[in-house]
Specification:
Oligomer: single chain
Order of helices and strands: EHHEHEE
GO molecular function, one term: magnesium ion binding
Number of helices: 3
Protein name: RusA family crossover junction endodeoxyribonuclease
CATH superfamily: Holliday junction resolvase RusA
Number of domains: 1
Organism: Flintibacter hominis
Strand content: 15-25%
CATH architecture: 2-Layer Sandwich
Shape: globular
Largest sheet: 4 strands, mixed
CATH class: Alpha Beta
InterPro entries: RusA-like_sf
Length: 124
């Protein structure tokens, strides 16, 4: 299954900065990002996945200014929590997510996040 989030998410540095400013500001940033991800994915996936899944992320950025770990760390957390909240995954623990991989690309005009989810017994 292939999913596309048609925008980029804040990085880990932005989340840490918000947390340091005020703990509720960090929580609001995560909640707002999670809501945006749910809206973007709602039309693309409606049924629960067979677990454990393997997730391949392609982080497409508008430029190379942000570090790769800054891009993916906070983003994976937001996306996986959104999938749990949607009821697509039961949880985001060891029994539910076998693993994940990250790849990166640049597209100045169309930053996005592409996710391939492989379910047991199915090819992406």
């Amino acid at each position: 299954m292939r999913l596309i989030i048609p925008f980029s998410l804040p990085g880990l540095n932005e989340y840490i900065e918000a947390e340091r400013g005020h703990r509720q500001k960090g929580a609001k940033l995560k909640r707002d990002c999670q809501t945006s991800v749910i809206i973007a994915l709602r039309r693309q996936i409606r049924t629960p996945l067979r677990e454990p899944v393997f997730m391949r992320y392609l982080w497409v950025e508008k430029n190379r200014r942000r570090d790769k770990d800054n891009i993916s760390s906070f983003g994976r957390k937001v996306i996986q929590d959104a999938l749990v909240k949607m009821g697509v995954l039961r949880n985001d623990g060891w029994e539910n997510i076998e693993g994940f991989s990250d790849s990166f690309a640049v597209d100045k005009g169309k930053p996005r996040i592409e996710i391939e989810i492989e379910e047991p017994g199915k090819k992406p």
